[in-house]
Fold:
Amino acid sequence: MAKKYVYYFSKEKSDGDTTMKYLLGGKGSNLAEMCNIGLPVPPGFTITTEVCKYYNENDKKYPKELVGQVETDIKKLEKLLGKKFGDKKNPLLLSVRSGAAVSMPGMMDTVLNLGLNDEAVEGLAALTGNPRFAWDSYRRFIQMFSDVAMGVPHHSFEHSLEEVKRGIAQRKGIKDVESLFQEALNKLIPDTALEGDDLKELVAKYKEIYKKHKKSEFPQNPKEQLWYAVNAVFGSWSNNRAVAYREINNITGLVGTAVNVQAMVFGNMGDDSGTGVGFTRDPSIGDNKLYGEFLMNAQGEDVVAGIRTPLPISELKKENKEVYNQLQDIRLKLEKHYTDMQDFEFTIENKKLFMLQTRAGKRTAHSEIKIAVDMVNEKLISKETAIMRVKPEQIDQLLHPMFDLDEEKKTKVFSKSGLPASPGAALGQAVFTAEDAEAWKKDGKDVILCRLETSPEDIRGMYAAKGILTARGGMTSHAAVVARGMGKCCVAGAGDIHIDGKTKVMKVGAVVVKEGDWISLNGSKGIVYIGKIKLIPPKMSGPFGILMKWVNEYKRLGVRANADTPNDTKVALSFGAEGIGLTRTEHMFFEGDRIVAFRRMISVAPEVKRLRDLIDDETDSEIIEQAKKDLKQPLEKYLQALKDLLPLQRKDFEGIFKELKGLPCTIRFLDPPLHEFLPHDEKGQKALSAALGTDFNKVKDIVAGMLESNPMLGHRGCRLGITYPEITEMQTRAIVEAALNVGKKGIKVKPEIMIPLVGNVKEFTLQKEIVLKTIEEVKKQKKIKKLPFDIIIGTMIEVPRAAMTADEIAKEAEFFSFGTNDLTQMGCGFSRDDAGKFLGDYVKLGIYEEDPFQSLDIKGVGRLVQTAVDLGKSTRKDIKLGICGEHGGDPKSVEFCHKIGLNYVSCSPFRIPIARLAAAQIVIKEKVINLKQRKK
Amino acid sequence: MAKKYVYYFSKEKSDGDTTMKYLLGGKGSNLAEMCNIGLPVPPGFTITTEVCKYYNENDKKYPKELVGQVETDIKKLEKLLGKKFGDKKNPLLLSVRSGAAVSMPGMMDTVLNLGLNDEAVEGLAALTGNPRFAWDSYRRFIQMFSDVAMGVPHHSFEHSLEEVKRGIAQRKGIKDVESLFQEALNKLIPDTALEGDDLKELVAKYKEIYKKHKKSEFPQNPKEQLWYAVNAVFGSWSNNRAVAYREINNITGLVGTAVNVQAMVFGNMGDDSGTGVGFTRDPSIGDNKLYGEFLMNAQGEDVVAGIRTPLPISELKKENKEVYNQLQDIRLKLEKHYTDMQDFEFTIENKKLFMLQTRAGKRTAHSEIKIAVDMVNEKLISKETAIMRVKPEQIDQLLHPMFDLDEEKKTKVFSKSGLPASPGAALGQAVFTAEDAEAWKKDGKDVILCRLETSPEDIRGMYAAKGILTARGGMTSHAAVVARGMGKCCVAGAGDIHIDGKTKVMKVGAVVVKEGDWISLNGSKGIVYIGKIKLIPPKMSGPFGILMKWVNEYKRLGVRANADTPNDTKVALSFGAEGIGLTRTEHMFFEGDRIVAFRRMISVAPEVKRLRDLIDDETDSEIIEQAKKDLKQPLEKYLQALKDLLPLQRKDFEGIFKELKGLPCTIRFLDPPLHEFLPHDEKGQKALSAALGTDFNKVKDIVAGMLESNPMLGHRGCRLGITYPEITEMQTRAIVEAALNVGKKGIKVKPEIMIPLVGNVKEFTLQKEIVLKTIEEVKKQKKIKKLPFDIIIGTMIEVPRAAMTADEIAKEAEFFSFGTNDLTQMGCGFSRDDAGKFLGDYVKLGIYEEDPFQSLDIKGVGRLVQTAVDLGKSTRKDIKLGICGEHGGDPKSVEFCHKIGLNYVSCSPFRIPIARLAAAQIVIKEKVINLKQRKK
Structure:
């Protein structure tokens, strides 16, 4: 038997059903399914997605069986409806619509009224006794068909419509018609004001336009029309916009679109006809009631085009109560059948209701959650289904202030080339330096800090700003990481913006934003607007809370937060964090005056190191004596600076421990290269020279001496603690003393010390020795025999070598936390700050499915993680395993972490609910897979 | 039974033998062994190295059994020799000498004549009838003992000797004695001119000096003297110099030094006594004859001290023919017994010969090889032993010009803080810019290029220079890598040199070298001298050639060269290379005018890329049209530049293929980040702007746009070929066309194309597609059906992710070449340019045994390599495997490569003999291990 390429559907009999989505597309499978459950659907047939694949792979040819199968189904339609395709008197008219398995804007969409020609239009007019309807249908068909199937742009026809309208206006005696603006003209002469003859005139003009563009007459043969339209749909699968859409939305695994050919029903047949769209529940707030809008005497495109304002669906009661009630019944039937909120299209033809489409309705995150929770309560779905239905990424919307959508749509875009680096929305006046941000903030102003890129020197300015905009850098650039950590809106790497920090101006092309100008950032989309947009604060609504409670019934993976301050900790706990997986101690050094003490320390540290080495290595006793003398002063300064930092850092830890009330807290020792803490501009260096009482040139030398060719692979992480063991001592002491102080108040503490950037077990043991020695010293000083709390010492696994030698490291380390940012940098050899130059291409070319800094590269970096887990467990069975890279909040990565048996993930506070949901979903997925396997 | 801590030896009976080196030290075990084979050795005993360990670990205490065991052996000596330790009339005198398993300068060395005191000296004088001898022995003992055992510096005693000599001179009536310089005084009154009374006076003075320093009398109790001396030896094991020596020379696994206590024999008993050192063959040229020197009426220290000039050993025939003949016999006996060249010490006491020490003699690389080859011919040793005896690193000396050692010793050192970055020696006038180097070279001058660090812009200056000196950078810095590639002497990272490129001056402290001053570099030691030192050209002497032929009978591993030019290739082949493992195509772009064409290409490339992306991504057809127009001009320039580069590159490959005559040649595509090819200084950018006819500011922008935060992890390697596929096309075409052209001349060719920096198999397949497509194009153009040579396509494994996914990559790649430089950088997270800041500490602290850039980090990076080998073979059984990082010429790394089954190593031409030797040695080692296991 020949392969089946065409699937017929009608109320009486359907070849397909809802399970055949990949073959028939979403639209096609649901049309068949609606027929199957007895809903009023105009009959038609669907050409499968396989044909699309064949067409695009075979030089735009079709399988030879196709034409025959299509003609057979057209005959079935003719027979059922008593009409004939191309008939002069009673023509069968068709709609042709695309429909892939996933809804996809950008493809050729719809051609209505196909089958009309110069003769059939007359027949239709005679048959319906409604010439206006017939000619209106024909002119719509010409315009739509020419645009989508033949490439004659839609706007080419607009001028003619205007001409005809001006003619009518003149005939009506309206003055100064020629000078009327189009808008005014449309108000005076709406489309509905055109009579049959006007439309006939318009058809003639349209055909002329077509001829001018295509150098041939408008096709009169209905079959020819049909195949042109089908070709256009299949061809549009691979046009730029559709390809781009699939890329952007990560849509893979589809072979093509299907084509749905369906008998026309007419909403424009008169005042007892109409068309509309409906939702089985309110898609924006989730209420359980029929929602939608309609237009009488109109075809579908009129609802979308916005020329006439549709009415709310409740008004349909007045127009046609029977149809309204019928829709209410259908709503319940659809929901019961699909057990999900549906978005449907309908047409009323001469008072009779037809369903043209149904699909799962798009909805806001808010309504998604409300509907899911409600449906559990209505016993329509299970808790598991409810949890699975909410996409983790959607929740993000609920956790940040957002713009009023309507206002946002109307606001002028400044740049849309940026990355959605830290979600939420923010508005403020543009400033171009961190200092200005601080100063303006002091004056009570809201500011957006706009920088080419940010560096640690900008931290205080970043704190002060409402949002951060950079022209350079990726999803894990400094700006992005810090902003996400702060839960602050950020658009990063907006490459089309030219920022001039000196003149305090930025431009995109000719559009200029000056200091003090208001701008608005959408950090969830990466868009920058000019002007202010109204903000809507985040709501932690009831159903959300309920869903997140259910989530905890399922998930096995722990979810901790990356948090550096008591305030971050508080926020994280309110989102359900079960502890802290990463406290970055260095961020504490940027606040307030501590940067001064810290800089005092690092500005003498290299000199201390140099002299110590000299004393160690030299054999000449005179040189040694001299070096010992020389060492005295810098060593004093160095130790004093550390002494000054100790109480500050201890206080930070106390604050965090108090918030945590006994939940675990992983504290990472100083990690970034020291030069990140020093000013790199002359102004800053002069200020530092004054603060230190050190010669300016010497300060310059110190900073220059710390610069590195590849700082990511340089003197940082535990390498600092090995060179400067006193830093490790100070940090250990701060942690232990803080824990003791908080413990005295009857609050439990559970500190975990984490040594960063270990690549070799010996680095770890050397640092661990210092930690243990310092703990003993504190105990001695405080006269304590045994610490009244447990403290464990572990490491980050972020250097590939550490992963490869994790068996050795696990003998010494009590826990591993995967630092997947660095593991990705070193594992893939991608500098997060530079990879922007090619990573876009890499994703486009399919080298990586996603940016590996956003979603863990499971095939590559994941193998390193897996290796480390296996090796680690081989020497320490019960080793605690977590992840604290940016991936800890990425649902796919969370899934991977669950599968390889980590104990927890840790992510920024604002992603905690996302991670929790993802952790629950993978448990449910596994359950489903297990069930399926058991059935086999 | 109590543990044995003391091992007795005498001609009659010895507790030890030569196999007990780790317990008795080299000296102790060989003293016992010489006794065993019947050589005349004064009796004595050895306190074991275990005692040293105990002493240093137990707060300077000894095992309780020790004293008893020592006293027992002293009694044996007393009985054997008929003398008594501390006796007033016939005292037993002892020497106390240190001796670890490995000879180690820096430890306390020797105390002679121990046992003398105020009474015993009189007895000795009476017994020998030689008061001069007795008092001379006592004063020597006081000075030596005070210095080495009691910490009273040697020079403290010098003034007294001078005083006594001036007294004698005055007595002799010499005028102006007080104003005589010390040297003149020593000539007038040599030590031998001192009579018994003078020496007695001197002893009194020495004892005063001792008292002044130590606030106590000189110890008179011989046992007390003995234990002081033993303590000093054991204590010196852990002094700074000894620890530093072990660190520098990678001496690990020793527990301590032994102490040898031996009955004294006296070379200073009169004119029929004497002392000397001998070698069983000539240690500097390897001739098979007795070699050495001696002094009559002297103790060992006199030979070393250089106050009297020793006589060549052939002169001994005249002094004492019998002893001379005896030494000739001993020479043969020793060589037969030890089957190696020996370095020995002897003393003649009253015409009687005593052997005091023997050990394997130190020798030059030249004599090492000659002796080994001679001994095979003499059937003393096997070929295998000969091969094993030559240290691979030693060979390096033979492959480069070297300084005349005597001249070098006398020349003033400018800096010794540098690294031996590229071996050999060079002298020239200091210049401070690459341009100057070129200009001076043109004027016929020899120059040394002195830079803070070098960059690719300096390449032509580096070519022009005789040697390269940098103040910054490690063993794998740009200067070091390029210099080794060129076989050019280089001292890198001489941190104490302050180079001022502007004023063209460099300084170490107050010592200044100006432009044009002559300096000399020892690249094998990392030393910079002021002035000229005579150069000795390298010799490829006969025995060396023979040995290298033997090597090929054993080694299984292939040895290829990293070579970028026909000349490099020639050198490599002359050293025995079996092909080229790495041709870095980018080096070709720096030569002559091609850099201009190359810069033309990269200066428009980003614009081409930007517009192409726009055309791809944009949906607005107007913008697309505009972009297409805009693209035209830059695209033309870009393609033209590539077209210009093609014939140049093709010619390079032709030259290399011709040299290789069918040996394989692995060619790596363009690898470094593009900005390395652009000038970073204003002057260079202005010149480029003129050459390109592009606005200076635009040139600045282009360069700035290419800068990266972490260039090692940036836009380089195959990432370039993916962004700019036309570069890959051009390089493929150049290779294939060159191979065809050379093939036409009847010369075989075997090109292998290598895609660099692959981390993901898809990167490889995308590049491979371009290569295959281009080959097809060439074939079509040349009307060839099948290429007349094989061409294979493989990749470097240098990104950790590539190692972890090598199974995937091996499905596509026909060979792997491990780029262990980058694999180390990314695997360990060490930037080779920055790691100098902490890697020194890392080696000192034992975190890494050696600098992982010099010797492959087998435990970590090695695991990545091993993983890649295993995974690669799992999907392509016969995959060709090689290594082309800097480690390919490191013997330990070569050993590892052999063990994991690589097919070949590739290294710089000048290291090829080293790699070949190492490859043979591991085969022999394995054979020995297998034999041992079979015996078990």
